[in-house]
Amino acid sequence: MDFTISKELDDLRSRIAAFVADNVLPLESNPDAYDEHGNISTRHLGPLREEARQAGLWCLQLPRPDGSFIGRVGMAVCYEEMNRSIFGPVVFNSAAPDDGNMMVMHQLCRPDQREKWLQPIVEGKVRSAFAMTEPSPGGGSDPSMIRTTAKKVGNRYVLHGRKWFITGAQEAAHFIVIARTSDDPRSGLSALMFHKDQPGWRIVRRIPIMGPEEHGGHCEIEFDGLEIPEEDLLLEEGRGLKVTQVRLGPARLTHCMRWLGLSKRAVEIAVDYAERREGFGVRLANRESIQMMLGDLAMGIEVGRLLVMKAAWELDQGSFAKKEVSMAKIHVANLLHKAADTAIQINGARGYSTDTVLEWIYRYARQARLVDGADEVHKMVLNRHLADERRDFWRWNTGETQTAIK
């Protein structure tokens, strides 16, 4: 693959960087800009979103009206720049879980379903959620364990079951839910879409978590007779596993793209402080120990960028990029935690305080090693590929080894 980006993409990246620097970063030091859960308040978010839309920086994960599309590689460049600020991605309508839901709906919905379910999210009129994870003994990283059922009654599906840690559920209007429609091990799951105002389901609680939250939190929800018309199936009955495959790979990678931006921000704050702070007559930046810490982070970020770019390129070629996404997810999730921790250490008590966003990033970072598959699950995935492919695990791609998405 070629790591050169086009002039047009670099111009887009530069415009995002300027927008973040001028309009978003200043809000981080304004206590009034935060909601009660540590994210940007809707009062400040609305005007920023309109400015981003007017600037042509809106919803870059989908093809534009003129048919152009920056692809996953272009998203990697832009998302990294968006998340220089802790508030960035949602301003551009490129935050989880909406971006992942929009991508899968765009790819798999019928035209009439796109108009009904996708377009309001694209326009920023509603938020969305993806309901798959369940409390034990239900499904988590292993979707074959899903216990929520969708029983066909006439031309409708009736749902019963429970989901939890459903990101954004409290503010979402459009939902995708993965439920069991049969006991078939390969085609027993289906994906269905529903609106928050449909009866037969409820939010049991917004689960308190360690870190700051996405808008709408992480909720436990219960289905007790929710009826979904068959026309609101996403793909056909029994294709739910396909939906999860199409959605989760790119969504995991967009997390990594954003986390690289936060990792770079942590280093930025650490470098700035190290260059100004003196102790015992020596600037921190001149101490070998600090130089080694920062050099190690710089290398880790660059390794993460290469892993993300490789996975993004594979996705753009039509591959599921399972190995590449898992490697990126493991590395970048751990990198984000390390970057925040190291930056706090360099900043000392200042880093532990709320005078910088480092403590926000640190609390947020711990979830990275859990969301969309824990580190250990992704390492098991890699081992499975290694067991199947042996030395071919490291083969060079000749253009004839892609696994097409069908």
Task: Map the helices and strands.
Layout: H1 7-24, H2 42-54, H3 71-82, H4 88-91, H5 98-108, H6 111-122, E1 127-131, E2 149-153, E3 156-167, E4 172-180, E5 189-195, E6 201-206, E7 218-229, E8 233-234, H7 240-276, E9 278-279, E10 282-283, H8 288-316, H9 322-347, H10 349-352, H11 358-365, H12 375-389
Parallel strand pairs: 1-4
Antiparallel strand pairs: 2-3, 3-7, 4-5, 5-8, 6-7, 9-10
Helix pairs in contact: 1-3, 3-7, 3-8, 5-6, 5-7, 7-8, 7-9, 8-9, 9-11, 9-12
Summarize the structure.
With 406 residues, the chain is an alpha+beta fold.
What is the C-level CATH assignment of the largest domain?
Mainly Alpha
Share of helical residues: 40-55%
Radius of gyration: 22 Å
> What oligomerization state is this entry in?
single chain
Q: How many helix segments? A: 12
Strand order of the largest sheet: 1-4-5-8
Task: Tell me the CATH superfamily of the largest domain.
Answer: Butyryl-CoA Dehydrogenase, subunit A, domain 3
Inertia-based shape = globular
Explained architecture:
The protein has 406 residues and is an alpha+beta fold. It folds into three domains: 7-108 and 115-122, Acyl-CoA dehydrogenase/oxidase, N-terminal domain (Butyryl-Coa Dehydrogenase, subunit A, domain 1, Orthogonal Bundle), CATH 1.10.540; 127-238, Butyryl-CoA Dehydrogenase, subunit A, domain 2, CATH 2.40.110.10; 242-394, Butyryl-CoA Dehydrogenase, subunit A, domain 3. The protein is built from twelve helices and ten strands. The strands form three sheets. It has a four-stranded mixed sheet with strand order 1-4-5-8. Strand 4 and strand 5 form a beta hairpin. Helix 1 (7-24) runs parallel beside helix 3. The longest helix is centred in the middle third of the chain and has 37 residues, at 240-276. It is globular, with a radius of gyration of 22 Å. It starts with 6 loop residues before the first helix and ends in a 17-residue tail after the last helix. The mean pLDDT is 96.
